[in-house]
Amino acid sequence: MKYFSRNYIDKYLLYILSAGIYFFAAIYTTTIAQKIELGAGIGGFNYKGDIAPTQKIRFIKPAGSLFFRFNPNQALSLRAEIAGGIIGADDKHSDDPFQLARNKSFTTRIFEGSAVAEYNFLNFQERRLAVNWSPYLFGGVGYSKFDPKVQTNPYKTSTFTLPYGVGIKYQVRRPWNIGIEYGARKTFTDFLDDLGGKPVATDKLVQGDPSLKDNYYYLRLSVTYTFYKIVCP
Protein backbone atom coordinates (compact mmCIF):
# COMPACT_ATOMS: atom_id res chain seq x y z
CA MET A 1 0.00 0.00 0.00
CA LYS A 2 3.06 2.20 0.05
CA TYR A 3 2.49 3.39 -3.47
CA PHE A 4 -1.10 4.37 -2.69
CA SER A 5 -0.47 6.22 0.56
CA ARG A 6 -2.17 9.58 1.05
CA ASN A 7 1.12 11.48 0.97
CA TYR A 8 2.04 9.85 -2.32
CA ILE A 9 -1.35 10.62 -3.87
CA ASP A 10 -1.21 14.23 -2.63
CA LYS A 11 2.26 14.63 -4.06
CA TYR A 12 1.16 13.11 -7.39
CA LEU A 13 -1.89 15.40 -7.59
CA LEU A 14 0.33 18.38 -6.79
CA TYR A 15 2.56 17.51 -9.73
CA ILE A 16 -0.45 17.20 -12.03
CA LEU A 17 -1.90 20.49 -10.78
CA SER A 18 1.43 22.28 -11.20
CA ALA A 19 1.85 20.92 -14.71
CA GLY A 20 -1.72 21.97 -15.59
CA ILE A 21 -1.24 25.48 -14.26
CA TYR A 22 2.02 25.83 -16.16
CA PHE A 23 0.41 24.52 -19.36
CA PHE A 24 -2.58 26.88 -19.24
CA ALA A 25 -0.38 29.79 -18.16
CA ALA A 26 1.86 29.13 -21.17
CA ILE A 27 -1.16 29.10 -23.50
CA TYR A 28 -2.56 32.25 -21.90
CA THR A 29 0.68 34.24 -22.06
CA THR A 30 1.25 33.16 -25.66
CA THR A 31 -2.29 34.24 -26.58
CA ILE A 32 -1.85 37.57 -24.82
CA ALA A 33 1.57 38.03 -26.40
CA GLN A 34 0.14 37.66 -29.89
CA LYS A 35 -2.28 40.49 -29.14
CA ILE A 36 0.33 43.05 -28.10
CA GLU A 37 1.99 45.50 -30.48
CA LEU A 38 4.49 48.27 -29.88
CA GLY A 39 4.83 50.91 -32.57
CA ALA A 40 6.27 54.21 -33.68
CA GLY A 41 4.98 56.73 -36.16
CA ILE A 42 6.34 59.69 -38.07
CA GLY A 43 4.46 62.29 -40.06
CA GLY A 44 3.08 65.77 -39.68
CA PHE A 45 0.65 67.98 -37.76
CA ASN A 46 -1.59 70.42 -39.59
CA TYR A 47 -3.59 73.23 -38.01
CA LYS A 48 -6.98 74.83 -38.74
CA GLY A 49 -8.17 77.98 -37.00
CA ASP A 50 -8.21 81.77 -37.29
CA ILE A 51 -5.00 82.00 -39.29
CA ALA A 52 -5.79 78.98 -41.46
CA PRO A 53 -9.58 78.58 -41.81
CA THR A 54 -8.91 75.60 -44.10
CA GLN A 55 -6.09 73.08 -44.05
CA LYS A 56 -3.11 73.94 -46.22
CA ILE A 57 -0.26 71.64 -47.19
CA ARG A 58 2.28 74.43 -46.67
CA PHE A 59 1.44 74.50 -42.96
CA ILE A 60 2.21 70.82 -42.29
CA LYS A 61 4.89 70.57 -39.57
CA PRO A 62 6.88 67.53 -38.38
CA ALA A 63 5.45 65.22 -35.72
CA GLY A 64 6.07 61.76 -34.31
CA SER A 65 4.58 59.30 -31.85
CA LEU A 66 5.02 56.09 -29.86
CA PHE A 67 2.11 53.78 -29.11
CA PHE A 68 0.97 50.53 -27.54
CA ARG A 69 -1.79 48.50 -29.18
CA PHE A 70 -3.79 45.64 -27.68
CA ASN A 71 -5.94 43.47 -29.94
CA PRO A 72 -8.58 41.63 -27.87
CA ASN A 73 -10.17 40.22 -31.04
CA GLN A 74 -10.04 40.50 -34.83
CA ALA A 75 -12.43 43.44 -35.07
CA LEU A 76 -11.27 45.58 -32.15
CA SER A 77 -7.95 47.18 -31.23
CA LEU A 78 -7.24 49.40 -28.24
CA ARG A 79 -4.41 51.92 -28.46
CA ALA A 80 -2.58 54.23 -26.07
CA GLU A 81 -0.33 56.80 -27.73
CA ILE A 82 1.93 59.74 -26.96
CA ALA A 83 2.78 62.20 -29.71
CA GLY A 84 4.66 65.43 -30.14
CA GLY A 85 5.24 67.93 -32.89
CA ILE A 86 4.82 71.48 -34.13
CA ILE A 87 1.91 73.42 -35.57
CA GLY A 88 2.00 76.87 -37.13
CA ALA A 89 0.56 79.18 -39.79
CA ASP A 90 1.04 82.63 -41.30
CA ASP A 91 -1.51 85.20 -42.51
CA LYS A 92 0.74 86.28 -45.36
CA HIS A 93 -0.14 83.12 -47.28
CA SER A 94 -3.87 83.92 -47.26
CA ASP A 95 -5.95 85.42 -50.04
CA ASP A 96 -8.16 87.21 -47.52
CA PRO A 97 -7.45 90.99 -47.41
CA PHE A 98 -8.27 91.04 -43.68
CA GLN A 99 -5.71 88.35 -42.93
CA LEU A 100 -3.10 90.04 -45.10
CA ALA A 101 -3.67 93.29 -43.20
CA ARG A 102 -3.51 91.47 -39.84
CA ASN A 103 -0.23 89.76 -40.83
CA LYS A 104 -0.28 87.42 -37.83
CA SER A 105 1.78 84.24 -37.53
CA PHE A 106 2.43 81.66 -34.84
CA THR A 107 4.36 78.50 -34.07
CA THR A 108 3.81 76.24 -31.10
CA ARG A 109 4.94 72.84 -29.87
CA ILE A 110 2.24 70.31 -29.01
CA PHE A 111 2.49 67.22 -26.84
CA GLU A 112 -0.48 64.89 -26.54
CA GLY A 113 -1.55 61.66 -24.93
CA SER A 114 -4.54 59.70 -26.15
CA ALA A 115 -6.50 56.48 -25.73
CA VAL A 116 -8.56 55.30 -28.69
CA ALA A 117 -10.46 52.26 -29.95
CA GLU A 118 -9.98 51.03 -33.51
CA TYR A 119 -12.66 49.15 -35.44
CA ASN A 120 -11.15 46.88 -38.10
CA PHE A 121 -13.40 46.34 -41.11
CA LEU A 122 -11.62 43.11 -42.02
CA ASN A 123 -10.52 40.32 -39.70
CA PHE A 124 -7.03 41.56 -38.87
CA GLN A 125 -5.03 38.74 -37.29
CA GLU A 126 -1.74 36.93 -37.59
CA ARG A 127 -1.65 34.91 -40.81
CA ARG A 128 1.43 33.25 -42.21
CA LEU A 129 0.17 32.32 -45.67
CA ALA A 130 -2.48 34.95 -46.42
CA VAL A 131 -2.61 38.66 -47.12
CA ASN A 132 -3.39 40.36 -43.86
CA TRP A 133 -4.62 43.92 -43.96
CA SER A 134 -7.57 46.03 -42.90
CA PRO A 135 -8.92 49.57 -43.10
CA TYR A 136 -10.15 50.89 -39.76
CA LEU A 137 -11.91 53.73 -38.01
CA PHE A 138 -10.78 55.07 -34.66
CA GLY A 139 -12.03 57.42 -31.96
CA GLY A 140 -11.31 58.22 -28.35
CA VAL A 141 -10.17 60.87 -25.90
CA GLY A 142 -6.93 62.74 -25.37
CA TYR A 143 -5.18 65.61 -23.65
CA SER A 144 -2.84 68.11 -25.29
CA LYS A 145 -0.34 70.63 -23.95
CA PHE A 146 0.87 73.45 -26.19
CA ASP A 147 3.66 75.96 -25.79
CA PRO A 148 3.19 79.18 -27.80
CA LYS A 149 6.31 81.26 -28.38
CA VAL A 150 4.20 84.41 -28.09
CA GLN A 151 1.40 84.77 -25.57
CA THR A 152 -0.50 88.05 -25.89
CA ASN A 153 -2.80 87.43 -22.91
CA PRO A 154 -2.77 84.86 -20.08
CA TYR A 155 -4.70 81.71 -20.94
CA LYS A 156 -4.67 77.98 -20.29
CA THR A 157 -2.16 76.19 -22.51
CA SER A 158 -3.72 72.73 -22.36
CA THR A 159 -6.95 71.16 -23.59
CA PHE A 160 -8.87 67.93 -23.74
CA THR A 161 -9.20 66.57 -27.26
CA LEU A 162 -11.39 64.13 -29.18
CA PRO A 163 -9.16 62.25 -31.65
CA TYR A 164 -10.88 60.43 -34.52
CA GLY A 165 -10.04 59.35 -38.03
CA VAL A 166 -9.25 56.52 -40.45
CA GLY A 167 -6.31 54.28 -41.25
CA ILE A 168 -5.02 51.17 -42.98
CA LYS A 169 -2.82 48.52 -41.38
CA TYR A 170 -0.90 45.81 -43.20
CA GLN A 171 1.19 42.90 -41.97
CA VAL A 172 4.34 42.98 -44.09
CA ARG A 173 6.00 39.96 -42.56
CA ARG A 174 5.54 38.41 -39.16
CA PRO A 175 6.01 40.12 -36.71
CA TRP A 176 6.21 43.48 -38.54
CA ASN A 177 3.25 45.63 -39.58
CA ILE A 178 3.04 49.00 -41.30
CA GLY A 179 0.21 51.49 -41.42
CA ILE A 180 -0.94 54.89 -42.56
CA GLU A 181 -3.39 56.98 -40.57
CA TYR A 182 -5.08 60.35 -40.80
CA GLY A 183 -6.89 61.78 -37.82
CA ALA A 184 -8.39 64.99 -36.49
CA ARG A 185 -8.04 66.40 -32.98
CA LYS A 186 -11.11 68.34 -31.97
CA THR A 187 -9.99 70.68 -29.20
CA PHE A 188 -11.79 72.79 -26.62
CA THR A 189 -9.54 75.82 -26.89
CA ASP A 190 -9.32 78.84 -29.17
CA PHE A 191 -5.75 79.71 -28.21
CA LEU A 192 -3.53 77.39 -30.22
CA ASP A 193 -2.77 80.35 -32.50
CA ASP A 194 -2.71 82.97 -29.70
CA LEU A 195 -5.94 84.43 -31.14
CA GLY A 196 -8.90 83.50 -29.00
CA GLY A 197 -11.41 84.31 -26.33
CA LYS A 198 -13.66 87.35 -26.09
CA PRO A 199 -12.54 90.51 -27.89
CA VAL A 200 -10.36 92.60 -25.55
CA ALA A 201 -9.39 95.40 -27.91
CA THR A 202 -11.08 97.70 -30.38
CA ASP A 203 -8.48 96.87 -33.01
CA LYS A 204 -10.02 94.06 -35.05
CA LEU A 205 -6.63 93.17 -36.48
CA VAL A 206 -5.46 91.67 -33.17
CA GLN A 207 -8.58 89.60 -32.64
CA GLY A 208 -9.74 86.20 -33.77
CA ASP A 209 -13.15 84.67 -34.29
CA PRO A 210 -14.41 83.51 -30.85
CA SER A 211 -16.91 81.15 -32.50
CA LEU A 212 -14.14 79.21 -34.31
CA LYS A 213 -12.28 76.70 -32.14
CA ASP A 214 -8.79 75.66 -33.15
CA ASN A 215 -8.18 72.08 -34.28
CA TYR A 216 -5.21 70.16 -35.57
CA TYR A 217 -4.66 67.00 -37.59
CA TYR A 218 -2.11 64.20 -37.66
CA LEU A 219 -1.02 62.28 -40.75
CA ARG A 220 1.48 59.52 -40.01
CA LEU A 221 3.18 56.39 -41.25
CA SER A 222 3.79 53.75 -38.61
CA VAL A 223 5.69 50.54 -37.98
CA THR A 224 4.67 48.08 -35.27
CA TYR A 225 6.18 44.93 -33.80
CA THR A 226 3.89 42.13 -32.58
CA PHE A 227 5.10 40.04 -29.65
CA TYR A 228 4.55 36.34 -30.29
CA LYS A 229 6.44 35.08 -27.27
CA ILE A 230 6.87 36.28 -23.71
CA VAL A 231 10.09 35.09 -22.11
CA CYS A 232 9.50 34.44 -18.43
CA PRO A 233 12.46 34.78 -16.06
UniProtKB/TrEMBL annotation:
Transmembrane segments: 12-29
Keywords: Membrane, Transmembrane, Transmembrane helix
Domain DUF6089: 25-232
InterPro entries: DUF6089, OMP/PagP_B-barrel
Record SUPFAM superfamilies: OMPA-like
Protein name per its UniProtKB record: DUF6089 domain-containing protein
Native species: Dyadobacter linearis
